[in-house]
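Closing statement on the fe (iii) ion sub-project.
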Amino acid sequence: MDGVRAPRDESDYRDFAAARPGVRAFYAENHARQTVDFVRGQHEKYFPLRRRRMGVWRAFDALAELVDDSDPDLELSQRDHALQTAEALRAAGAPGWLVLTGLVHDLGKVLCLFGEPQWAVVGDTFPVGCAFDPRVVHADLFAANPDARVAQYATPLGIYAAGCGVDALLLSFGHDEYLYRVLRGSRLPEAALAVIRFHSFYAWHRAGAYAAFAAPDDGAKLEAVRRFNPFDLYSKCEAPPDWPALRPYYEALVDEYLPAELQW
Ligand code: FE
Ligand code: FE
Protein backbone atom coordinates (compact mmCIF):
# COMPACT_ATOMS: atom_id res chain seq x y z
CA MET A 1 0.00 0.00 0.00
CA ASP A 2 3.01 2.28 -0.09
CA GLY A 3 2.32 5.45 -2.01
CA VAL A 4 -1.41 5.31 -1.29
CA ARG A 5 -2.32 8.73 0.04
CA ALA A 6 -5.35 9.71 2.06
CA PRO A 7 -7.71 11.77 -0.06
CA ARG A 8 -8.75 14.60 2.24
CA ASP A 9 -8.06 16.50 5.41
CA GLU A 10 -9.11 14.75 8.60
CA SER A 11 -10.17 17.61 10.83
CA ASP A 12 -13.80 17.78 9.69
CA TYR A 13 -14.75 14.14 10.35
CA ARG A 14 -15.88 12.07 13.32
CA ASP A 15 -16.87 15.18 15.21
CA PHE A 16 -19.19 13.40 17.64
CA ALA A 17 -19.81 16.56 19.68
CA ALA A 18 -21.40 18.27 16.65
CA ALA A 19 -23.08 15.13 15.29
CA ARG A 20 -26.80 14.61 14.75
CA PRO A 21 -28.48 13.94 18.15
CA GLY A 22 -29.39 10.45 16.94
CA VAL A 23 -25.73 9.45 17.02
CA ARG A 24 -25.46 9.72 20.84
CA ALA A 25 -28.82 7.99 21.22
CA PHE A 26 -27.45 5.22 19.02
CA TYR A 27 -24.41 4.78 21.29
CA ALA A 28 -26.56 4.85 24.45
CA GLU A 29 -28.27 1.71 23.23
CA ASN A 30 -25.15 0.11 21.74
CA HIS A 31 -23.02 0.58 24.87
CA ALA A 32 -25.76 -0.56 27.24
CA ARG A 33 -26.64 -3.73 25.34
CA GLN A 34 -23.41 -5.14 23.86
CA THR A 35 -22.48 -7.57 26.64
CA VAL A 36 -20.46 -10.81 26.68
CA ASP A 37 -23.69 -12.82 26.71
CA PHE A 38 -25.15 -10.82 23.85
CA VAL A 39 -22.06 -11.20 21.65
CA ARG A 40 -21.76 -14.93 22.36
CA GLY A 41 -25.44 -15.32 21.54
CA GLN A 42 -25.00 -13.50 18.22
CA HIS A 43 -22.08 -15.77 17.31
CA GLU A 44 -24.26 -18.80 17.99
CA LYS A 45 -27.08 -17.28 15.99
CA TYR A 46 -24.98 -16.54 12.88
CA PHE A 47 -21.91 -18.82 12.97
CA PRO A 48 -21.34 -21.14 11.27
CA LEU A 49 -22.94 -19.12 8.46
CA ARG A 50 -26.19 -20.73 7.40
CA ARG A 51 -28.71 -18.02 6.42
CA ARG A 52 -28.52 -17.83 2.65
CA ARG A 53 -26.27 -17.91 -0.38
CA MET A 54 -25.94 -14.74 -2.39
CA GLY A 55 -23.37 -12.90 -4.46
CA VAL A 56 -21.89 -9.52 -3.69
CA TRP A 57 -24.25 -7.69 -6.05
CA ARG A 58 -27.39 -9.02 -4.40
CA ALA A 59 -26.05 -7.75 -1.09
CA PHE A 60 -25.32 -4.37 -2.66
CA ASP A 61 -28.77 -4.00 -4.08
CA ALA A 62 -30.21 -4.84 -0.69
CA LEU A 63 -28.12 -2.13 0.98
CA ALA A 64 -28.93 0.56 -1.55
CA GLU A 65 -31.45 2.22 0.76
CA LEU A 66 -29.74 1.84 4.14
CA VAL A 67 -28.42 4.95 5.94
CA ASP A 68 -26.15 4.33 8.95
CA ASP A 69 -27.51 5.91 12.18
CA SER A 70 -24.09 5.81 13.89
CA ASP A 71 -22.25 7.85 11.31
CA PRO A 72 -21.87 11.53 12.13
CA ASP A 73 -20.59 12.34 8.64
CA LEU A 74 -22.82 10.68 6.13
CA GLU A 75 -26.40 10.65 5.03
CA LEU A 76 -25.81 8.84 1.76
CA SER A 77 -26.82 5.24 1.21
CA GLN A 78 -24.42 2.45 1.97
CA ARG A 79 -23.96 1.64 -1.69
CA ASP A 80 -22.78 5.17 -2.40
CA HIS A 81 -20.44 5.04 0.61
CA ALA A 82 -18.94 1.79 -0.67
CA LEU A 83 -18.32 3.24 -4.10
CA GLN A 84 -16.86 6.47 -2.75
CA THR A 85 -14.43 4.54 -0.55
CA ALA A 86 -13.38 2.29 -3.43
CA GLU A 87 -13.08 5.16 -5.90
CA ALA A 88 -10.90 7.16 -3.48
CA LEU A 89 -8.59 4.15 -3.14
CA ARG A 90 -8.49 3.64 -6.89
CA ALA A 91 -7.71 7.32 -7.50
CA ALA A 92 -4.82 7.04 -5.02
CA GLY A 93 -3.31 4.12 -6.96
CA ALA A 94 -4.19 1.37 -4.47
CA PRO A 95 -3.85 -2.26 -5.66
CA GLY A 96 -7.00 -4.02 -6.90
CA TRP A 97 -7.49 -6.11 -3.76
CA LEU A 98 -7.55 -2.96 -1.64
CA VAL A 99 -9.97 -1.15 -3.96
CA LEU A 100 -12.19 -4.22 -3.67
CA THR A 101 -11.82 -4.13 0.13
CA GLY A 102 -13.09 -0.57 -0.01
CA LEU A 103 -16.03 -1.66 -2.07
CA VAL A 104 -17.12 -4.52 0.19
CA HIS A 105 -15.94 -3.44 3.67
CA ASP A 106 -19.43 -2.54 4.94
CA LEU A 107 -21.45 -5.28 3.26
CA GLY A 108 -21.88 -6.95 6.64
CA LYS A 109 -24.57 -4.33 7.22
CA VAL A 110 -26.92 -6.76 5.50
CA LEU A 111 -27.44 -7.87 9.11
CA CYS A 112 -29.97 -5.03 9.23
CA LEU A 113 -31.92 -6.83 6.52
CA PHE A 114 -31.94 -9.96 8.67
CA GLY A 115 -33.81 -7.94 11.29
CA GLU A 116 -30.92 -6.87 13.50
CA PRO A 117 -31.29 -3.40 15.05
CA GLN A 118 -28.59 -0.90 14.08
CA TRP A 119 -26.99 -0.99 17.56
CA ALA A 120 -26.07 -4.64 16.83
CA VAL A 121 -24.70 -3.90 13.35
CA VAL A 122 -22.95 -0.54 13.04
CA GLY A 123 -20.90 1.91 15.10
CA ASP A 124 -17.44 1.62 16.63
CA THR A 125 -16.55 -1.77 18.08
CA PHE A 126 -14.83 -2.56 21.40
CA PRO A 127 -13.93 -5.73 23.31
CA VAL A 128 -16.44 -7.14 25.78
CA GLY A 129 -15.27 -9.23 28.74
CA CYS A 130 -12.74 -6.68 29.97
CA ALA A 131 -12.91 -3.14 31.35
CA PHE A 132 -14.28 -0.63 28.87
CA ASP A 133 -11.54 1.77 27.85
CA PRO A 134 -12.30 5.49 28.26
CA ARG A 135 -11.00 6.05 24.73
CA VAL A 136 -14.02 4.31 23.21
CA VAL A 137 -16.41 6.89 21.76
CA HIS A 138 -19.08 8.00 24.31
CA ALA A 139 -17.44 5.77 26.96
CA ASP A 140 -19.52 7.42 29.71
CA LEU A 141 -22.49 5.48 28.35
CA PHE A 142 -20.93 2.15 29.44
CA ALA A 143 -22.22 2.88 32.95
CA ALA A 144 -25.51 1.40 31.72
CA ASN A 145 -23.86 -1.87 30.58
CA PRO A 146 -24.50 -4.71 33.08
CA ASP A 147 -21.02 -6.14 32.39
CA ALA A 148 -19.54 -3.06 34.06
CA ARG A 149 -20.74 -4.62 37.33
CA VAL A 150 -19.41 -8.16 36.67
CA ALA A 151 -16.15 -8.51 38.64
CA GLN A 152 -14.61 -10.94 36.14
CA TYR A 153 -15.12 -8.48 33.27
CA ALA A 154 -14.20 -5.29 35.08
CA THR A 155 -10.40 -5.67 35.16
CA PRO A 156 -8.11 -4.38 32.38
CA LEU A 157 -7.47 -7.92 31.05
CA GLY A 158 -10.86 -9.42 32.01
CA ILE A 159 -11.34 -12.84 30.40
CA TYR A 160 -8.24 -12.47 28.17
CA ALA A 161 -4.52 -13.10 28.56
CA ALA A 162 -1.97 -10.35 28.07
CA GLY A 163 -0.57 -10.57 24.53
CA CYS A 164 -3.45 -12.77 23.31
CA GLY A 165 -3.69 -10.80 20.05
CA VAL A 166 -6.54 -8.85 18.55
CA ASP A 167 -7.95 -11.98 16.85
CA ALA A 168 -8.67 -13.49 20.28
CA LEU A 169 -10.85 -10.58 21.44
CA LEU A 170 -14.60 -10.92 21.54
CA LEU A 171 -15.58 -7.59 19.98
CA SER A 172 -19.00 -6.00 20.26
CA PHE A 173 -21.11 -7.64 17.57
CA GLY A 174 -21.53 -5.94 14.23
CA HIS A 175 -20.87 -5.85 10.52
CA ASP A 176 -17.07 -6.18 10.78
CA GLU A 177 -16.88 -9.64 12.34
CA TYR A 178 -19.84 -10.84 10.34
CA LEU A 179 -18.38 -9.93 6.93
CA TYR A 180 -14.97 -11.24 7.97
CA ARG A 181 -16.59 -14.65 8.45
CA VAL A 182 -18.33 -14.42 5.07
CA LEU A 183 -15.13 -13.54 3.16
CA ARG A 184 -12.62 -15.66 5.06
CA GLY A 185 -11.57 -18.39 2.65
CA SER A 186 -11.93 -16.20 -0.45
CA ARG A 187 -8.94 -15.04 -2.51
CA LEU A 188 -8.68 -11.77 -0.57
CA PRO A 189 -5.29 -11.42 1.20
CA GLU A 190 -4.86 -11.39 5.00
CA ALA A 191 -4.47 -7.61 5.07
CA ALA A 192 -7.88 -7.22 3.43
CA LEU A 193 -9.47 -9.55 5.98
CA ALA A 194 -7.88 -7.59 8.84
CA VAL A 195 -9.27 -4.34 7.43
CA ILE A 196 -12.73 -5.87 7.19
CA ARG A 197 -12.63 -7.39 10.68
CA PHE A 198 -11.22 -4.41 12.61
CA HIS A 199 -12.08 -1.26 10.69
CA SER A 200 -14.63 -0.11 13.32
CA PHE A 201 -12.30 -0.80 16.28
CA TYR A 202 -11.30 2.86 16.53
CA ALA A 203 -10.13 2.76 20.15
CA TRP A 204 -7.46 0.27 19.00
CA HIS A 205 -6.49 1.52 15.56
CA ARG A 206 -6.77 5.23 16.20
CA ALA A 207 -6.43 5.81 19.95
CA GLY A 208 -3.91 3.06 20.80
CA ALA A 209 -6.13 1.54 23.52
CA TYR A 210 -6.03 -2.14 24.53
CA ALA A 211 -2.27 -2.33 23.91
CA ALA A 212 -1.90 -4.99 26.64
CA PHE A 213 -3.50 -7.51 24.26
CA ALA A 214 -1.08 -6.86 21.39
CA ALA A 215 0.58 -9.93 19.85
CA PRO A 216 3.55 -9.81 17.46
CA ASP A 217 1.50 -10.23 14.29
CA ASP A 218 -1.00 -7.55 15.25
CA GLY A 219 1.40 -4.93 13.88
CA ALA A 220 0.72 -5.79 10.25
CA LYS A 221 -3.04 -5.82 10.88
CA LEU A 222 -2.92 -2.45 12.60
CA GLU A 223 -0.91 -0.96 9.76
CA ALA A 224 -3.37 -2.25 7.15
CA VAL A 225 -6.37 -0.87 9.04
CA ARG A 226 -4.69 2.49 9.62
CA ARG A 227 -3.85 2.93 5.96
CA PHE A 228 -7.35 2.01 4.92
CA ASN A 229 -9.21 4.14 7.43
CA PRO A 230 -8.77 7.59 5.84
CA PHE A 231 -10.39 6.29 2.66
CA ASP A 232 -13.37 5.02 4.62
CA LEU A 233 -13.75 8.36 6.44
CA TYR A 234 -12.55 11.12 4.22
CA SER A 235 -14.02 10.03 0.94
CA LYS A 236 -17.44 10.90 2.32
CA CYS A 237 -19.10 13.68 0.40
CA GLU A 238 -22.67 14.30 -0.52
CA ALA A 239 -22.37 13.83 -4.31
CA PRO A 240 -23.47 10.30 -5.26
CA PRO A 241 -21.10 8.35 -7.54
CA ASP A 242 -22.19 7.31 -11.03
CA TRP A 243 -22.95 3.70 -10.28
CA PRO A 244 -23.99 2.46 -13.76
CA ALA A 245 -20.81 3.86 -15.30
CA LEU A 246 -18.59 2.25 -12.65
CA ARG A 247 -20.23 -1.14 -12.46
CA PRO A 248 -18.27 -2.96 -15.24
CA TYR A 249 -14.90 -2.16 -13.63
CA TYR A 250 -16.12 -3.42 -10.26
CA GLU A 251 -17.72 -6.52 -11.66
CA ALA A 252 -14.37 -7.59 -13.07
CA LEU A 253 -12.68 -6.91 -9.73
CA VAL A 254 -15.25 -8.92 -7.79
CA ASP A 255 -14.84 -11.85 -10.20
CA GLU A 256 -11.09 -11.82 -9.66
CA TYR A 257 -11.23 -12.27 -5.87
CA LEU A 258 -14.64 -13.58 -4.87
CA PRO A 259 -16.83 -16.52 -5.81
CA ALA A 260 -20.12 -15.91 -7.65
CA GLU A 261 -22.03 -16.81 -4.49
CA LEU A 262 -21.04 -16.43 -0.85
CA GLN A 263 -22.47 -18.11 2.22
CA TRP A 264 -24.12 -15.54 4.55
FE1 FE B 1 -17.94 -0.10 8.53
FE1 FE C 1 -17.42 2.37 5.89
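The pocket of fe (iii) ion (ligand 2) is lined by residues 81, 105-106, 232 (CB under 6 Å). With this model delivered, the sub-project is considered complete and its resources will be redirected to Aim 3.
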